[in-house]
Amino acid sequence: MQNNIINVIGAGLAGCECAYILAKNGIRVRLYEMKPRYKSEAHKSDNFAELVCSNSLKSDMITNACGLLKKEMEILDSLFVNVAHNTKIPAGQALAVDRDKFSSEITKKIKENENIEIIYEKVDNIDFGDEITVIATGPLTDKVLFENIGKIIGKSSMYFYDAAAPIVYSDSINMDVAYIMDRYGNLGEGDYLNLPMTKEEYLSFYNALVNAKEAPRHDFDKIVLFEGCMPIEHMAKRGEKTLVFGPLKPVGLQNPNNQEKSYAVVQLRAENEEKTLYNLVGFQTSLTFPEQKRVFSMIPGLENAEFARYGVMHKNSYINGGDVLDSNFCMIKNNNIYFAGQISGVEGYVESAASGMIVAYSIINRLKGKKITFPDTTMLGSLAKYISTKNENYQPMNANFGILKPLEDNIRDKKLKYQKLAEIALKDIEEFKKKL
Question: Beta partners for 161?
């Protein structure tokens, strides 16, 4: 294995996870990264593994699909999960990180590894001869490279648009209106700021939102919006009460300043450890910046809000994995090319890193003369199975219990069902680890 060199294109979450695991196992890696010279419209930092949207990595509980996925990755010595826990900030049951510290620590660990050679240049063509190459260029893959990938896979490209929520400075939030409380928690305790709205306030906000101007986009008629990152204005257009049953749900968030039940509640989550920045939870948006300022300032408590970052909408590119990849994220027609990250058809921070892990262990075992298949009773294996299964309506997939191999017994209680599925998954990933 010592003489093999693996090319990894892209130092995002998937690329860093893949490169680190390969290098940790004595395999030399050339890691190509186009930053800092070139950046996509969503990237701001020069560091690797930049979190461009939310800083939340979802729940840490194993009865949550993403929590189970992180636990499986932790068992397999994930760089991503270890650094996330080292840089976490309070967020209730969720694992949220200080985004700058998170990417800085991953960058440091990658740069310090003697088996990783970092090459700062943009890759346009994937022509490395007989060398194994991992394409981990993310959902914002450069246009020229993506066109060349399209030629290699022989399929027409697909894409969807992803939206990021705005961030406001904490000292610009009206704390006479806001109150601290996690859902069903105690007043003054928790990791979320809550902004209550009466029915009249909500309706005024709602009407402004659905009539607000969106930022112009190219190829608008071809846009496919991924459900998990639906812009709030698009969600609102589904019906007047959609938001109050969704991201603005008031249940479990009693307003201490008013004994009457709030009609809607906007939640804000800290973006950094110092809590100087807050993210508007569920407020991914494609509105123009002036419209965001106007409409979101109508939310009680944000009337004088100062925005550290406005929400943006950007193109996310991915391939139809079910047509071209096997369960190791390897091209069926060219086994020297692997895909990892959101370009492969997984969706989400954790899922992207997880795909990089699967690719790394697949390559390691391939170099040993073995082919591995992650068990479909695990979240890792279920994601691998999903991306490699043909589907006419293929769309990016998050970790969820619906993709796991079902239980033999029909358990109606969801909590008990998820607990049982998680126990099986963790037992099986421990056994699988012994075979790696």
Answer: 225, 315
Which of 311, 337, 367 is a domain's end point? 311
By residue range, what is the domain housing residue 294? Answer: 167-311
CA–CA separation, 81 vs 66, rounded Å? 12
Tens of pLDDT, residue by residue over 114-162, are 999 999 999 998 888 889 999 999 888 888 888 888 888 876 656 666 6
Q: What is the DSSP letter of 312?
A: -
Tell me if residue 273 falls in helix, strand or coil: coil
For the chain, the domain total comes to 2
Q: Which two tokens stand for residue 361?
A: 């262990």
**How far apart, in whole angstroms, are the C-alpha atoms of residue 358 and residue 15?**
11
> How confident is the model over 58-78, as pLDDT tens digits?
999 999 999 999 999 999 999
> In sequence order, what DSSP letters do the residues of 53-93 get, joined into one string?
S-SEEEE-STTSHHHHHHHHHHHTT-HHHHHHHHTEE--TT
What's at 244, amino acid-wise? V
Residue 315 β-bridge partners:
161
Count the neighbouring beta carbons within 10 Å of the beta carbon of residue 372: 16
Residue 172 has pLDDT above 60, yes or no: yes
Q: What angle do CA 265, 269, 274 make, to 5 degrees?
A: 140
DSSP secondary structure letters along 365-392 = HHHTT------TTSHHHHHHHHHTS--T
DSSP string, 115-173: TEEEE-S-------TTS-EEE---TT--HHHHHHHHHHHTS--EEEEEE---EEEGGGS
| Cβ proximity of 7 and 338 under 8 Å | no
- Cβ-contact 294, 213 below 8 angstroms: no
Specify whether the CB–CB gap between 140 and 315 falls below 8 A. yes
Same domain, 249 and 376: no
The model's pLDDT over 293-325, given as tens digits with 9 standing for 90+, comes to 999 999 999 999 999 889 887 777 888 888 999
